[in-house]
Design goal:
488 residues; alpha/beta; Aspartate Aminotransferase, domain 2; Aspartate Aminotransferase, domain 1; Ornithine Decarboxylase, Chain A, domain 4; 13% strand; binds pyridoxal-5'-phosphate
């Protein structure tokens, strides 16, 4: 195949050049009917490019196969057997992968630092999760991806599980030893799914952490919008080997997907793949150089510390994606939540994952000296302003023994079964019927089917007081909790 082609993008250009007109959705007719005030903000071109896939971009029978060609080009570029585009984020792709490997029944080994979209997959499928414990770092109060030994132990305990699912890189940039974990799974003939939502750039440069397909994973799910240059919601799943049926995988994606996929999202992913093939190595070279310098400069700001050495060693993570700059602000006497809010309000700079003591800047291939300087100047201003900021309320972090709750009911049964709403003071000892997920990063602390303990509630309540955001519980302040109604 010719990697200089970008079939979806080129078909879109042709659609525009030929001035095709459809008596089909979208009703805006490439922007003709749209309120000028909308066009002012969104631009005419975005509506011009928003065309329906068949009987629009392609003909009624999709006989030109633009999308399939774009997917094959991507698979070839990164060395996977197959690649599928999705326009509903990795949140959809990961559910499709889970359903495809399990057929919606039995057990799945899952790292407990999984994203909330994985938990939604459990609720929808009715699967029994067998949780793989991540390594907990009591000093840093964060978890590292699980070790191959832990995955091996889980297979010994649950040999009938369909597959294992791990997250790597995590939203902190830490990476699992995917190669060793894949071997552990494959020696039992079981597939490994890697949630690599944060890894779009990895296949295109040798100095980044190993990407899941090279390390032997069977399916890997990637959000192009996170670390690649695509629109929000652009996601890909890659497949290799013969442990997962490709037809089942694509049909599982089909039953979850929209029938009105966004051509804008497809075209951007297609163009991004070509750009990465042609220029990715040089772009990432430049980004890594910029990032290394930036990490040193931020670390030199009094009161700030960039996490690096402490994240990668024998008892921690296997590798680190340095483009995630996790900055500890605790020595400034403020919380990560305060830092993130202050930077947005005062410097118009938004940060990523934020917790009680850290704020994170994710550096992309788009960043350059100018944006690096913006970050540095803003962080210096933060360090100067910090002494005047109020001291943050304490967030009560659970001990490791209280951190991982026991799953006593299937997530689906707990979510869909009879529920009641109880004051938080009465929720300890009850079974959660909803998720409570500090966001970002998006790893649920409580999930349906888990027996709630006081330590988890103390953490979440004190977190909310300090600025933590919980997007999923019915009561975001967590004064009340939805729990399973149990017969006495
Ligand atoms: C580890 C992980 N997996 C999956 C997702 C979901 O990805 P998307 O936003 O593309 O749906 C996220 C999003 O933050 C994530 O961090």
């Amino acid at each position: 195949m010719d990697q200089n082609d970008a079939p979806v993008l080129e078909a879109l250009a042709e659609h525009q050049n030929l001035e095709r007109y459809g008596f089909t959705p979208p009703a805006h007719r490439q922007g003709r009917g749209v309120d000028p005030r909308v066009l002012d903000v969104l631009g005419e071109q975005s509506f011009k490019s928003d065309v329906v896939a068949s009987s629009g971009l392609d003909d009624r029978q999709s006989s030109n196969g633009y999308l399939q060609d774009a997917e094959s080009l991507l698979a070839e570029a990164v060395g996977a057997d197959m690649a599928f585009f999705s326009t509903c984020g990795s949140s959809l792709s990961i559910k499709a992968a889970i359903l495809a490997v399990t057929r919606g029944e039995g057990e799945l080994l899952i790292s407990r630092d999984a994203h909330k979209s994985v938990v939604s997959g459990l609720v929808l499928s009715g699967l029994q999760p067998r949780w793989i414990r991540p390594k907990w770092d009591n000093e840093l109060k964060l978890s590292h991806p699980p070790s191959p030994e832990t995955v091996e132990e889980m297979w010994q305990r649950y040999p009938d599980a369909s597959a294992a699912l791990i997250v790597s890189p995590t939203p902190y940039g830490t990476c699992a030893d995917i190669e060793a974990i894949a071997k552990v799974c494959h020696k039992r003939g079981k597939p490994l799914i890697v949630d690599e939502a944060w890894g779009a750039q990895l296949p295109f440069h040798d100095d980044t952490p190993t990407w899941a397909m090279s390390a032997g994973a069977d399916i890997c799910v990637v959000s192009v919008h996170k670390m690649g240059l695509g629109f929000e919601q652009g996601s890909i799943f890659h497949l290799q080997g013969d442990l997962v049926d490709p037809v089942r995988l694509s049909q599982c994606a089909d039953i979850l997907s929209t029938t009105s996929a966004s051509t804008l999202i497809y075209a951007a992913m297609d163009g991004w793949r070509r750009q990465m093939v042609q220029h990715g190595k040089a772009m990432i070279d430049k980004t890594l150089k910029l990032t290394r310098q930036l990490r040193r400069d931020i670390d030199a700001i009094p009161g700030l510390h960039v996490l690096e050495e402490e994240l990668v060693h024998a008892e921690a993570s296997h590798d680190l994606d340095i483009q995630h700059i996790m900055i500890d602000v605790s020595k400034l006497g403020i919380s990560g939540f305060q830092a993130t809010d202050w930077l947005r309000e005062n410097c118009r700079v938004d940060m990523g994952t934020t917790d009680h003591r850290r704020t994170e800047a994710v550096i992309s291939v788009t960043d350059d000296e100018e944006t690096a300087d913006l970050l540095l100047t803003s962080l210096r201003a933060l360090a100067e302003a910090a002494p005047e900021m109020p001291r943050p309320p304490e967030v009560i972090i659970p001990d490791e023994k209280d951190l991982f709750l026991e799953t006593v009911m299937l997530p689906r049964d707990a979510f869909f079964g009879p529920v009641e709403v109880v004051p938080v003071e009465e929720a300890s000892g009850r079974i959660a019927a909803e998720m409570a997920t500090p966001y970002p990063p998006g790893v649920p602390l409580l999930l349906p089917g888990e027996r709630i303990n006081k330590a988890a509630l103390d953490y979440l309540r004190s977190g909310v007081e300090a600025g933590m955001v919980l997007p999923d519980p019915a009561d975001a302040t967590l004064k009340t909790v939805r729990v399973v109604r149990e017969e006495l």
